Amino acid sequence: xxxxxxxRQSLFKVAAAECGIGFWxxxxxxxxxxxxxxxxADPFVSEHTPYDLAVAAGSSTTLYHAHLAPMxxxxxxxxxxxxxxxxxxxxNSSLAATQSRTYATVQEGAPPKRTYGGLKDQDRIFTNLYxxxxxxxxxxxxxxxxxxxxxxxxKGHDWLINEIKASGLRGRGGAGFPSGLKFxxxxxxxxxQDKKPRYLVVNADEGEPGTCKDxxxxxxxxxxxxxxxxxxxxxxxxTAAYIYIRGEFYHEATVLQRAIQEAYKDGLxxxxxxxxxxxxxxxxxxxxxxxxxxxETSLIESLEGKAGKPRLKPPFPAAVGLFGCPSTVTxxxxxxxxPTIVRRGGKWFAGFGRERNQGTKLFCISGxxxxxxxxxxEMSIPLRELIEKHCGGVKGGWDNLxxxxxxxxxxxxxxxxxxxxxxxDFDALKDSQSGxxxxxxxxxxxxxxxxxxxxxxxxxxxxxxxxxxTPCREGSTWTMQIMQRFEKGQARAREIDMLQExxxxxxxxxxxxxxxxFAWPIQGLIRHFRPELEKRVAEYxxxxxxxxxxxxxxxxxxxxxxxxxPGQ
Length: 568
What we know:
By secondary structure, this protein is α/β, with parallel strands linked by helices. It contains 22 helices and 15 strands.
């Protein structure tokens, strides 16, 4: 095997071996790809590869998982030529490097050592996160918002998308899909001939327990969101933006509506926005507090006045979205950072964090810390530094830490031994079998009851399930009941494996990601805190002389006048 063959294999090994369904710029490979040459020689890939993005590795289960697929980076032409001409590198060592490579390791050899974190104030995008100045238009302009926005719009959609791609921005709502690529989906070939309206839909339905970053943006920096709607809308040639805000956010909706009205009055949005000749409207729509409406197609259904239940995909919203028109649904933070990115340059934003995990990020830290807060920091900051620098540390000190949920309630829990050296970014947390999610860090010290914590989350997801999918409707009910029994010790040790199998049966078999949302926290609990579950069962047995009956019923339930089984 020649060095060039090794390079080709290193480029396409993961995509070819792993993807049952690859997703690339709207193109689906439905068959499993085992021939490396087929993928390497695909003219669509070579023709449509922007920057260094090559092929996405999709899910091997169902088609709708394709949008969660991480991207694989293709080395530049210069790097490929250098690698191919390097006679000193042996084939065996190259193959070893290829086999050890993961999604988080996109280059050969050890990356240069660097410490992440310590973001300077001049590099923070959200300058009013703590309400040091007003949320009105005058204050926003004073701190840099709406500065030469007309010139930005005049550069056109291609330039805007290229800058966002160069920044390495990934979706801040949880999935982490490359934003520049997502914004380009609506600019398909021949879009100019399509007379339908085109919509940007901003997901402000922040219902994930522990998450409060978008709420702070809308309450303190609303003009960053409004300007972001205009800039992102121009990038995808949208005619209007709909901001879908959670119904409980009454104060935030009031502040945001006032900011929209100020922007209209000043000529910044609406007809001839900012004097650019581009017409763009912004509408605010209040939801009714359903957690499932945070899913993009469920949100679209709710905007249309229907019950908030997810749609089957395809068709994807970029083709058939709001009111049957091309639409792109994206997160508040993702939209709000875009004006600053294109104003300062994509390379500036890409200078923070690690490869594939660039930029700054809002982290919401709550739980057993001395100073719960929402803070903007550099991606890939160590978890311990994040907590000790901005929150005053864990109550009782770092050694008193028991566990952390790193990215909102739907991400698996991590014990202290993993948290000691954990970096806060998409790939590092994925390697730890968890996820960055919404970056809502929930801290639990040794006084916290982790089993009760996960049991409460199970109750939440059961309550919020829309009931459309049988695995989710029934699975969330059963997981809630089993977790409530484990909380009291009224379960059997063999039910731990049964609970694990139940979550695996739900995972990947639902229309939206809510199935994974209630399955993953339980999987994390069993993975890291199985002894705690076994301990509760043993304590119950020691107290009562036996384990509980199936369903949690006691042996002497009949003597106590209690029902011994449902329906009796």
